[in-house]
């Protein structure tokens, strides 16, 4: 691909918001503070988490930019940004979540490998672009196709991004063709985020958005789209982002015994409090987010202020003043739900949040039961501890 290049060092990184919590500098990985994350249903671009595997690519000449579609198709094509923008434009509000979200809590049980994320390695944005199903039609692949006449069953996305895990090669991932060619799956080739042109950190000039799936499959800085017979064989599909049981360690792991992780499980977290916090006596407001993969809405968010003995149901919403109804025309099926409930807490309380999705999937109670050596998919009950402060004591973190 011409027009975009992956630099070999970190001397041309873009500016970032100063409030971001930096979890790794090179490559840059950062998340916003908890309370800032839920300040609005749509996450501002500068507060959206940053997940990178190498230096941020640089666009030298957008007019020369092309994305190629090739492989097990009748005709290979090369599309400019003008070609893609000539297709019908769709807007999809979707939450992207890193598979390592809440990894820090998992590493407190046993050491895991990976960036130490708190609870903010996700964000909710409105993405604008062309549906992948429309783009594939240009290469002769009809909508709802599950396999091409040439044996293609998967769609591989290859980035211009260069990363050490691929021995200096490009980042890549794939999804099934049946998902890519399905208009209802809302897979986008996105060139806008929250109504503005993508910024470099989030994939300028073009990225993939795969709603309801772990963020690792929404490839940024798109270079090639390959129609292939088997799943992508890249590192991040075959040697990472797979869910293993607690009994597996780095001495006995066999990577090909597990499929690459796609949908993310039901998840929620409290964002109005830190894991250990001081609050004023009396009523406080507990708020946070809940989300589930595969377009499954949130049926319920339960809050306990006594360590799980008694539960209260929190109010759920996406748009202020509009009741959230899962799988309703008023709801955004790929987006998170924000929750809020007023409670009165006793001194030295443990506050717990857990969510239930439309399929009655519920978060596991303990992180120990889902511990895995890569620290992914920590969807255990989110727990915080609070201590009452006297009226004269200002609220502060312990």
UniProtKB/TrEMBL annotation:
Source superkingdom: Eukaryota
Oxidoreductase molybdopterin-binding domain residues: 53-235
UniProtKB keywords: Metal-binding, Molybdenum, Oxidoreductase
Name of one Pfam family that matches: Oxidored_molyb
One GO CC term on file: mitochondrion
Cofactor needs: Mo-molybdopterin
Every Moybdenum cofactor oxidoreductase dimerisation domain range: 259-388
Biological process, per Gene Ontology: sulfur compound metabolic process
InterPro entries (UniProt xref): Ig_E-set, MoCF_OxRdtse_dimer, Mopterin_OxRdtase_euk, OxRdtase_Mopterin-bd_dom, OxRdtase_Mopterin-bd_sf
EC number: 1.8.3.1
Pathway annotation from the record: Sulfur metabolism; Energy metabolism; sulfur metabolism
Gene Ontology MF terms: heme binding; molybdenum ion binding; molybdopterin cofactor binding; sulfite oxidase activity
Coiled coil: none
Name listed for the protein in its UniProt record: Sulfite oxidase
Species this protein is from: Acorus gramineus (Dwarf sweet flag)
